[in-house]
Specification:
Structural class: alpha/beta
Distance between the termini: 19 Å
Number of helices: 5
Strand order of the largest sheet: 2-1-3-4-5
Largest sheet: 5 strands, mixed
Radius of gyration: 18 Å
Order of helices and strands: EHHHEHEEEH
Shape: elongated
Amino acid sequence: MSDPVVVLDDWWNVVYAKNACASASAWQKENASLVAQVGCESVNSCPEMTPRVDACRFDPVGNLYTFETELETQFASNPTCKGVQVVSYKGPQSTDSHVSQVNQDGAWWLSFNYSPGARKQNWAMSRTSALIAVTSGEGDPKEIADTVCSIVTQQGAKILN
């Protein structure tokens, strides 16, 4: 059996993060004067939106790359991940030499519905052969690496789909 491949779907993650930042920016423009007048605690969704607005203020993807780097560090340092190959997919136009691994049958695709400013992120993972979300969860980079590696190295239950 060959080493399992986890494809970090950076293409999806970037698009999702940019949309989340655009929404946060629109919310901030729409609510800035009200928040200034009555305070954040008096405006619906302000406590939830403020970390997003702050994360997106100087970064159009709201620190997604920092999150992905922390995740890759956790994959590299986690003994459960031994033998797991992690490849970042930048999109169909990418000239990355690892594209053949991305297309490997049975590769696991990992993506985020990235929420800028949140320490824990919602994630979903699917198999190349299935392309449906077969696993999902929420976690920080360490928790995600632990869970993903346990799944792809079959150290947990075997998932049949």
